[in-house]
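Minutes, project huddle
Topic: does the predicted pose make sense with acetyl coenzyme *A bound?
PN asked that the exact inputs be recorded in the minutes so nobody has to dig through chat later. Recorded below.
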Amino acid sequence: MSYSGEYQKKLVTPEEAVRVVKSGDWVDYGAFAGQVVALDKALAARKEELFDVKIRAVTALRAPEVVKADPEAKHFIYNNWHFSGIDRKLHDKGLCYHIPLLYHELPGYYRRFADVDVAMLPVTPIDEHGFFNFGPQVSHAKATCEKSKVIILEVNPNIPRCLGGKEESIHISQVDYIVESNWTLPQIPSGAPTEIESKIASYIMPELEDGSCIQLGIGGMPNAVGQMIAQSDLNNLGLHSEMFTESMVDMVESGRVTGANKTTDRYKIAYTFAFGTQKTYNFLNNNPMCAIYPVDYVNDPFIIAQNEKVISINNCIEVDLTGQVCSESSGTRQISGTGGQFDFAFGSYRSKGGKSFIAMESTFKKGDELRSRIKPSLTPGAIVTTHRAIVHYLVTEYGIVNLKGKSTWERAEALISIAHPNVREDLIKEAENLGIWRRSNK
Ligand SMILES: CC(=O)SCCNC(=O)CCNC(=O)[C@H](O)C(C)(C)COP(=O)(O)OP(=O)(O)OC[C@H]1O[C@@H](n2cnc3c(N)ncnc32)[C@H](O)[C@@H]1OP(=O)(O)O
Ligand SMILES: CCCC(=O)O
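Predicted holo structure (tokens), as shared on screen:
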């Protein structure tokens, strides 16, 4: 069946499409590398006619035009589920609001609570069956469309077609308007791991075994582990990861990954979003080894736990001496979000033989000052991303410790043992003040 008649009927210019937006509307922009560009520009151009239009997005990889056009946020209110560097800088200026989430719950927030007046989503060109593919960000796309009064697709031939899974595409019959565009996908290289990141990764590597099922987060340290895995002699690894990361391409191409030992999605790589460089987008395009799913499947701790030997590796900002982990704020300054950290820390520990790792450099440089990330108490205002009872292993360049089952004084002892040597004495004094240091401690 040909859909060209219906396609032509729904095809409009971006300027025509955004006329549907009214003052007071909630408008969804997509997520990660898949956020609308032509529609954003056209909506920004309507600034003077619109007030209180609320935008939702996830991890912007380019600054939204609606925000640039409205530096006092009188017309557009920009909200974001998980900050990128761009979002947090907008937030610092009062131009972006955070929406807290547990990532595996996000489609449910849409289906149960969120108002969506207009959903704008980038997609691949239509296929012979009348479907548009959401590309490498299935996440909550279908739930957004289910809830939206109006659906506008921004078709772009540069978007890779990501095979699913489920909920990876939308049929033309469900769409109101189509616009066409041709922007290049954001290119986000991982960067080579630093010496410290490689040292941290070297503590995690012995914990992996043949058949482990791996999740990696974003950042230099998970990337360092990915690179080491690619160069290892581990066999039959599986991948079940919220984010498909650039180093996973190397892990597959070096023959480490078969997925043969997986319980769910056997032989496949399950993920819910990806961004990186063209190497990643090319790898994902039409690749039957990969299955993209909505996040309420990939990040559901009970789905994660069905695989055996799940290994999850993520980063944090700071940790207190009892093991409370903050990965999303610096005091009250929102840095990113909870994202899927809790989902994978919880799910991987539930898996038979599973282990979750939260890694960090022991110090953080603020100007010329070197500050410990291991602190007596979290910085006032800091958000607890991963509850101390959920935290399993914590790793720095000074070692690796397990906190599960440990009392507060054992936790303090373990954490001080992996803190920077220059701060250990001070931390011991603080632990004494907090009543979590025993005379028997070293
Ligand atoms: C996509 C995935 O990761 S899936 C994995 C599951 N999700 C998560 O784990 C979500 C929570 N985690 C995260 O958001 C990230 O892993 C982070 C923020 C902890 C680390 O991310 P990275 O990109 O490696 O952080 P990076 O070192 O670039 O620092 C990010 C910002 O935090 C600031 N920051 C980092 N550590 C500290 C600290 N100890 N104190 C104060 N500020 C800090 C940095 O200055 C930077 O801010 P800036 O851009 O204004 O300079
Ligand atoms: C939107 C979630 C991204 C992350 O988990 O870091």
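Observations noted during the meeting:
- The domain at 195-434 is CATH 3.40.1080.20 (Glutaconate Coenzyme A-transferase).
- The chain is about 25% helix and 25% strand.
No decisions taken; revisit at the next huddle.
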